[in-house]
């Protein structure tokens, strides 16, 4: 197969769909790789590195899209890319189609077979291509929170680790899943006092084991959230109910009882956020204040660290990409149920029930079409 990698063109998107080690892996499996010039620069990967790994460079996106059998990307096609969609093309990328009826139309009209990273689901229910971005966002949340706690950035001037003779900062993490656990690791490593609040007692038991009892774990309820927030310096929101909007477990009145200059990083903002006061912000204009509490609610946090995010993402996507390239879409999706769940459109038919439900469209199971 010819695998094409265009440069991402979505606003502030500097990740790339394939790294040099992936180029070598595909070449060794007998495939060709065509990369748009400068596609990796945002993630600190030069054209020369791609060439040394065995890729061919193409100066224009048009050429990559036209020659490739399979295009691997990071974000969903943008309007400027719609004209490149064509029958028989395999597209492998994040799509998040549910709220995008126009893109869904384009994919169906063009006959592209699109496999979405976010709907690939393993038998144990895990979403392997979402996890790495939650790992990045969880760790980044503490780093960002620590910076905004600095007085000149609007925070209350607290050093998370404290110093001998002065207490460390209080970090309260809402949701002890992938984001929460990764946030806790960094906060604990910095010497902060860490509290994790989760609804699942089993999850709290696991966290107690992981951290050897050195973080406080609390069962989630309104009273506990309210009382814990009163002493928090940094709050990280990482609550998720899969497939649903995030539950808004921090109510408006709880914010007014928090310390002035405390910082909230609501990572769950991509699902609506877990505070009633959260609204999405951007990397260009990331923060705002409510009752003196600084809110950071950027919905694509991993884009702030594209180098790490690109490698974390491609580590997870590459095995599936190789399956698609080696076996072709039909055989790969027939043999691997996880990959099959990733198939959102197939030769003009919608194949994902979740997208169909949210847009009120008909769909056909992939099994019936492949
Ligand atoms: N902003 C960004 O850039 C960015 C990046 C990556 C992930 N995210 C988002 O972060 C959120 C968390 O992702 P994750 O991978 O950690 O999810 P996860 O499923 O691993 O963890 C969610 C946790 O929330 C807990 N929970 C559910 N209801 C709760 C409640 N009422 N009170 C307390 N805890 C509750 C669950 O028990 C679970 O442990 C998701 O919305 C994800 O999309 C955002």
- The string of secondary-structure elements, in order, is EHEHEHEEHEHEHEHEHEHEEEHHEEHH
Radius of gyration: 22 Å
Quickly give the structural class: alpha/beta
Strand order of the largest sheet: 3-2-1-4-5-6-14-15
Low-confidence stretches: none
Mean pLDDT, all residues:
96
Distance between the termini: 19 Å
- Main β-sheet, in a few words? 8 strands, mixed
The best one-word shape is: globular
What quaternary form is this? single chain
Number of strands: 15
Number of helices: 13
Fraction of residues in H or I helices: 25-40%
Small ligands present:
nicotinamide-adenine-dinucleotide
What is the beta-strand fraction?
A: 15-25%
Core attributes:
binds nicotinamide-adenine-dinucleotide, alpha/beta, 36% helix, eight-stranded mixed sheet, seven-stranded mixed sheet
Reconstruct the topology from this structure:
Layout: E1 2-5, H1 20-28, E2 32-36, H2 47-53, E3 56-58, H3 61-67, E4 70-72, E5 90-93, H4 101-110, E6 113-116, H5 131-148, E7 170-174, H6 178-189, E8 193-198, H7 201-210, E9 216-219, H8 222-229, E10 234-237, H9 252-256, E11 263-266, E12 287-290, E13 293-296, H10 306-335, H11 337-342, E14 343-346, E15 349-350, H12 353-359, H13 366-369
Parallel strand pairs: 1-2, 1-4, 2-3, 4-5, 5-6, 7-8, 7-10, 8-9, 10-11, 11-13
Antiparallel strand pairs: 6-14, 12-13, 14-15
Helix pairs in contact: 1-2, 5-6
The protein binds nicotinamide-adenine-dinucleotide (NAD).
């Amino acid at each position: 197969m010819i695998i094409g990698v265009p440069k991402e063109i979505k606003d502030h998107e500097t990740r790339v769909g394939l790294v040099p080690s992936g180029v070598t892996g595909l070449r060794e499996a007998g495939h060709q790789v065509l990369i748009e010039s400068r596609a990796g620069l945002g993630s600190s990967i030069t054209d020369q590195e791609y060439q040394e790994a065995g890729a061919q460079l193409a100066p224009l996106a048009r050429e990559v899209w036209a020659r490739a059998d399979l295009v691997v990307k990071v974000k969903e096609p943008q309007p400027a890319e719609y004209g490149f969609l064509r029958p028989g093309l395999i597209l492998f990328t994040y799509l998040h189609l549910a709220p995008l009826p126009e893109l869904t139309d384009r994919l169906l009209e063009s006959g592209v077979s699109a496999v979405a990273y976010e709907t690939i689901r393993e038998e144990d229910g895990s979403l392997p291509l979402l996890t790495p971005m939650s790992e990045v966002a969880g760790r980044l949340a503490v780093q960002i929170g620590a910076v905004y706690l600095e007085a000149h950035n609007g925070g209350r001037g607290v050093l998370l680790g404290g110093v001998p003779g002065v207490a460390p900062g209080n970090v309260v993490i809402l949701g002890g899943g992938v984001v929460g656990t990764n946030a806790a690791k960094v906060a604990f490593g910095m010497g902060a006092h860490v509290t994790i609040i989760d609804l699942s007692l089993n999850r709290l038991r696991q966290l107690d084991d992981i951290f050897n009892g050195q973080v406080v774990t609390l069962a989630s309820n309104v009273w506990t959230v309210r009382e814990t927030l009163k002493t928090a310096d940094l709050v990280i929101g990482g609550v998720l109910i899969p497939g649903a909007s995030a539950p808004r477990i921090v109510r408006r009145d709880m914010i007014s009882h928090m310390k002035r200059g405390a910082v909230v990083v609501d990572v769950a903002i991509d699902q609506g956020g877990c505070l009633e006061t959260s609204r999405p912000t951007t990397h260009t204009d990331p923060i705002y204040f409510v009752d003196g509490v600084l809110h950071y609610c950027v919905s694509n946090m991993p884009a702030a660290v594209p180098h790490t995010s690109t490698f974390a993402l491609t580590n997870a996507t590459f095995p599936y990409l190789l399956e698609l390239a080696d076996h072709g879409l039909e055989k790969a999706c027939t043999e691997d149920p996880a990959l099959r769940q990733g198939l959102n459109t197939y030769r003009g038919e919608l194949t994902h029930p979740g997208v169909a439900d949210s847009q009120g469209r008909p769909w056909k199971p992939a099994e019936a079409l492949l």
